[in-house]
Write a structure and sequence with these properties.
single chain; alpha/beta; Rossmann fold; 3 domains; 6-stranded mixed beta sheet; 4-stranded antiparallel beta sheet; 9% strand; ATP-binding cassette subfamily C protein
């Protein structure tokens, strides 16, 4: 199985109604009470405007039919009391239901956000380095970003539209009793106004979102990074404030120009819409006046129908305005669904089927490692790379080309070479973060793609050169487990073996101390070397049969790195170990050394064999050995 290099779109663009059904299905699944709350809110708010309208009609009729005005005061007061009480009950019910639905929609949006997160977590790792995929991830995120767009926007604006729909239907039914052609006229002009504004909305989506997604992502990245304290020191010491400000201004200016262009188009269409609305009301009001003068329409009925015309005009205007926004929010949901249903091979079949067959079963997307399946630590595990090549998505050249190499069980293999030689690509292929573009990787004679991915990952204890620490307690950063399942004694032992015991003694909360201040005011920030030692402790805690070290000591000085490798080599015991480094401090105690250059294997053998050969490895080792000697003399001078 090979990861596709390009993300393929989902099944297609969905209509507004399909996206509404999609969101409603989620609401019914997670917060079904939202549905009756939304309906009650729509009915009570929509009908409340007719309470006083009908009451006023009745009051006028009472005075028209009464000889003495004072004789019917009791009836009028009774009508006023009934109308006031009815409206109060409706408004209270409307507001209560509205707030209930609004609060519960946060949970619905959270569940939809889980799908986006799960898709991002489970897509092939190499796809994250594809710019097109990054753009689609960003566009999909806008639908579940807790900013009122997409999923939340569809419900919110539907919730705003429905009361107006009730008002409009009620008004049109009343007006149809006088003349159905009035209703046809109002609906025709309203539809024409809707078509004009929707055209502007589509233009805005294309010009201000689709065509500038890259610029929006850049602007968002600049804002996020400038607000991240991890970048604070560099921004200040290298005086990056002005360049970053200029970048933000450049992106903002470009985006503003697009928005101004869209708003100008809106303005033109809104002017036309206002003219049509003026004609609609003028014709309708003129007809009602004509009916009063020549058609026998009473003053009481005229008052009711006049209010109905106003309600119909206002409600229909609100309906098409809200529906335009709903169409825009639907396009965000389209981006979300396109990404979620995109035909990217997932990291395991159960994840793939979970998204494609039951999009409302996010919790099923993560398969637990088979509790009955365990890799024996003392068993033999032999890896064979058979003519393996790998090409990054969108790249023109291969990062690794026609590599054949064997990693024997219990062997310690050093992969060395200069930056860009393909060392880290080799590690990611071994860890199944990447799938080979060509060739095969075998474990004990079986293609590694045949193993369950979660079970395969249990075989490995990797440490990467990047700092992969989280804003969690130190204990959780080491165990990568919850407090309920982690072994605290084993955590302390792993930290001691990684040479962090001294640092822990300085901390008031020990292994329960948080990293960073994101989640705790007492959080700490470790040095670069300490963070890499923390990553080593994580690998020791996992205690898997195969250890992979991808330049985990790059933040240490050469002498400290050499000592760290020696200590780790001792702790690894007889386990299969892969050391990746562009510095050669790990090579002398390794069984085999593989020298990489330009994505290929150029030298392979023991340290002694390669030194006797006098090739590139020997030359590089001689240069670095002199550097170690000079640094050691400096340290002890």
């Amino acid at each position: 199985m090979r990861a596709r290099r390009k993300i393929e779109k989902g099944q297609g663009r969905y209509s507004v109604w399909e996206n509404l059904r999609y969101v409603i299905a989620g609401i019914v699944k997670w917060q079904p009470l939202v549905i009756p709350c939304t309906i009650i809110h729509a009915l009570t708010q929509g009908l409340s405007v007719y309470v006083w309208l009908y009451a006023i009609k009745c009051i006028i009729e009472i005075f028209e039919q009464s000889v003495k005005a004072g004789a019917e005061v009791q009836k009028v007061l009774c009508l006023v009391a009934i109308a006031a009480t009815t409206e109060l009950v409706m408004l209270v019910a409307s507001n209560l239901c509205d707030k209930q639905a609004e609060g519960r929609m946060h949970d619905v949006e959270y569940h939809f956000a889980l799908f986006w997160t799960t898709k991002v977590w489970t897509m092939p790792f190499c796809m994250h380095e594809d710019p097109e995929v990054q753009k689609n991830i960003f566009k999909a995120r806008r639908a579940i970003n807790s900013n009122g767009n997409g999923v939340a926007g569809l419900h919110y604006w539907s919730n705003q539209l429905l009361p107006n729909l009730v008002r409009a239907v009620m008004a049109l039914v009343l007006l149809a009793m006088i003349n159905p052609f009035i209703v046809i006229l109002i609906l025709s002009l309203t539809f024409l106004r809707f078509a004009l504004i929707n055209k502007a909305s589509i233009f805005e989506k294309e010009e201000c979102e689709n065509k500038v997604a890259k610029e929006q992502m850049a602007s968002w990245t600049y804002r996020e990074e400038t607000a991240d304290f991890a970048y604070g020191k560099d921004i200040r010491l290298f005086q990056m404030q002005k360049p970053l400000y200029q970048l933000l201004r450049k992106e903002s200016s470009f985006l503003n120009q697009k928005h101004i262009l869209a708003q100008n188009k809106y303005a033109r269409y809104y002017v036309i819409g206002d003219i049509l609305g003026f004609l609609e009301e003028g014709i309708t009001y003129g007809f009602l006046i004509y009916k009063v003068l020549f058609g026998g329409l009473t003053v009481a009925d005229f008052t009711l129908y006049l209010g109905s015309v106003h309600n119909a005009s206002t409600a229909l205007n609100e309906i098409f305005t809200k529906f335009i926004i709903i169409c825009s929010e639907s396009r965000h949901v389209n981006d979300y669904r396109d990404f979620l249903e995109s035909n990217i091979e997932q990291d395991s079949e159960n994840i793939k089927s979970s998204f494609q067959k039951d999009y409302l079963a996010c919790e099923d997307a993560f398969k637990e490692t088979n509790a009955d399946f365990k890799w024996e630590k003392d068993a033999d595990y032999e890896f064979v790379f058979d003519h393996v090549s790998f090409q990054y998505p969108g790249a023109d050249s291969y990062a690794l080309k026609d590599l054949s190499i064997c990693l024997k069980s219990g062997e310690k293999l050093a992969i060395v070479g200069l930056n860009g030689a393909g060392k880290s690509t080799f590690v990611k292929l071994l860890c199944r973060l990447y799938e080979p573009t060509q060739g095969h990787i075998y474990l004990n004679g079986i293609d590694i793609s045949e193993y369950d991915l979660n079970d395969y990952w249990e075989l490995l204890s990797p440490v990467f050169q990047e700092d992969e620490s989280f804003a969690f307690p130190i204990a959780q950063n080491v165990s990568m487990q919850t407090a309920r399942t982690q072994n605290r004694d084993k955590i302390a032992e792993s930290l001691h073996d990684a040479d962090l015991a001294g640092k822990l003694r300085e901390l008031p909360f020990g292994i329960d101390t948080y990293l960073y201040k994101n989640l705790s005011d007492d959080g700490i920030d470790l040095s670069g070397g300490q963070k890499q030692k923390l990553m080593l402790a994580r690998a020791l805690y996992k205690a898997a049969p195969v250890i992979v070290l991808d330049e985990p000591t790059a933040a240490l000085d050469a002498i400290a790195e050499s000592k760290s490798y020696e200590n780790f080599n001792h702790m690894a015991g007889g386990r299969t170990t892969v050391y990746i480094s562009h510095r050669l401090s790990s090579t002398k105690f390794c069984d085999r050394i593989a020298m990489f250059e330009a994505g290929g294997l150029i030298e392979y053998g023991t340290h002694e064999e390669l030194m006797q050969k006098g090739g590139k490895y020997a030359g590089l080792f001689a240069v670095q050995a002199q550097y170690y000697a000079d640094e050691e003399e400096t340290c002890y001078a």
